[in-house]
Amino acid sequence: MPKNKAKGSKRERELFKKFIKNNYRAVRVAGSGTMENAECDLIAGKAGKGRKYCIEVKSSKKPRKYISKEQIEKFMVFAAIFGLKPVLALRFNREGWIFIHPKHLRDAGKNWVITLERAKKKGKKFAQFFK
Q1: Which of 9, 32, 60, 68 is catalytic?
Q2: Span 92-119, pLDDT tens digits
Q3: Residue 47: which H helix or E strand, with range?
Q4: Where are the alpha helices (DSSP H) in the chain?
Q5: Residue 35 binned pLDDT confidence (cut-offs 50, 70, 90)
Q6: Among 125, 64, 61, CA closest to 98
Q7: Is 32 a known active-site residue?
Q8: pTM, entire model
Q9: Residue pLDDT, tens place only, 63-98
Q10: Residues 79, 81, 82, 86: what is their CA dihedral angle, to the nearest 10 degrees?
């Protein structure tokens, strides 16, 4: 398994455990990032109205993360088909998890981009986002 894929899987498992610890039901989506029609990394939900999420996990050593427009488009369609709220779970080095809605991404040509600074401004920590 390539190093980046292993790191991504580790981050997905870490976040999966965080949802379970907070009394959510969660599943990791098999083949996410490699298979056709696996357009998110985690699906999590909790009893109650509007508490069902489609989560794309991203991490970066740098203070910005680029994500292809095609990936975000497929992610948003997937979330809409299943009636899930789309969430980007961002993990910048030594910053902990930051959760944002994809609408906070900025246009960078072929890609969308989110900077650490913008993520901190627009995003929330787990307990705030998933209250």
Answers
A1: 32
A2: 988 999 999 999 999 999 999 999 999 9
A3: none
A4: 3-21, 69-82, 116-122, 126-129
A5: low
A6: 125
A7: yes
A8: 0.89
A9: 999 999 999 999 999 999 999 999 999 999 889 999
A10: 10
